[in-house]
Write a structure and sequence with these properties.
Elements: H1 6-29, H2 34-46, H3 58-63, H4 67-71, H5 75-116, H6 128-192, H7 202-209, H8 212-227, H9 239-243, H10 246-250, H11 257-287, H12 292-319, H13 332-357, H14 366-397, H15 400-412, H16 414-432, H17 441-467, H18 476-497, H19 510-514
Helix pairs in contact: 1-18, 2-5, 2-6, 5-6, 6-7, 6-8, 6-12, 6-13, 6-17, 6-18, 7-18, 8-11, 11-12, 12-13, 13-14, 13-17, 14-16, 14-17, 15-16, 16-17
Amino acid sequence: MYTFSSRLKTVAFALMVLGLLGIGYSFFTAPKTIEDVERIEAENAAHGHHGDAAHHDAAPHAAHGSATEATAPSHEGGEAAHDTTHAVAAEAPHEAHDTIQAEAAVAAAGHEGHNNNDGDPHTQEAHAPHADAHAAHEGHDDAHAAHKEHEEHLKHTLVQLQNKPWSALYVSALFFMLISLGALAFYAIQNAASAGWSPVLFRVMEGISGYLIPGAIIVFLVFIAGALDMHKIWIWMDKDVVAEDHLIQAKSGFLNKTFFLIRAAIFMGGWIFYRQYSRKNSLAQDEATDNSYFKKNFKAAAGFLVFFIVSESMMSWDWIMSVDPHWYSTLFGWYVFASFVVSAVTVIAMVTLYLKSVGYLEYVNTSHIHDLAKFMFGFSVFWTYLWFSQFMLIWYADIPEEVTYFKTRIEDFNLPFFGMVVLNFVLPILILINTDFKRLTWVVVLAGTIILCGHYIDFFNMIMPATVGKQWFIGAGEIGALMFFLGLFIFVVFTTLTKAPLLAKRNPLIEESKHFHY
């Protein structure tokens, strides 16, 4: 029986506490009003941050004067320019209105002169005020249009900045929950295949899948918060957006709050039910006198995998792809599957190596580690194949509705977008391609760390461009969320491992697994 070490428990609690502080800080500092956004942009400009988060289009700048230029020298200058922006915005329409009235009076006088002096060569001078008044009208309209455009920019930026802490929370919550789901799916595959090499690892897989229950609850709470309009991660939940978007209206039969929550409850309920049922049978088999519970788990695994394939695909459409409701990909479900399953296998390998290092799992040998590393290698190649297939076909077809997904990510998320390809494919291939390297603990840990970082960034890339756009950066919210859910994951998994012996001793294939050599 595994004993949860006080040192590991302390690390888990420390991560959770620090993570909660980071999450709380990100929510506390998120802007609440448009005025907060203006202040943030003015401060960014004043401190020389000339990125997209600090600037908006040239037309609003023209309407509001040269406020950005005035902000460059110093922070105090930025505040002055911020005030000037408001002054110019407020005064420009009034000045234009006064000018129009004055010039209209002159135009009327000129018009009388035109009627009484048809042959006068100076008659053309009477038309000049008309032209000036018309120009003033146009200036007045331009000022209003620019002001409205500026307000729309601020509202859009406000939504993105308010989404940022929620999105950071969601990315980490979803990532760790899907790792536990991936471990459960891998466990089901081993049971359905009656694999002889893996039963000595079953309790590790069951321990990791134990996080599925709290992880699913947290993710579901994020869904409920969205349905209550507490955030705008899924813009199709916003009635105002749907009212002006015919494409989203056409999908409203599927993309609506009620059906979305019902589907999520069914998916999560089905996964958790199988996890609890298979765990119960696995423990019961230890005390059984026959193989009845083993047979039940075999049948349950086969049924679960059918449900999993369908629910996982729909889950990826609902929870990830629909953050970009105009975009779709026919292989997106497989892409998401490859990403979280390779992460799950990696975590199985790393937890196994940790338990082995502290004196447990005596029957696990280098051949078991080698096979886990082969799955890490194989799923990394499979993920790359799907990534390239999706990217290449969309790039080659060049259909506007499809290329917008990659255009946004390449332009605004260039480093994380291409960086995760290196982390998820190039480095794992170079490290794990050698057969002997797959048996070395430090090599598997190194490759595993790279894979987990790369696929976390992959989920970051899937969610953030649609929810925060150009306002993204790695701050307290992102780091805090990652630390909190890592700490919670460690605590739940290793607590679950203490609840039962680490060896499924009555599994019919356990002896084959004990003596497995490759």
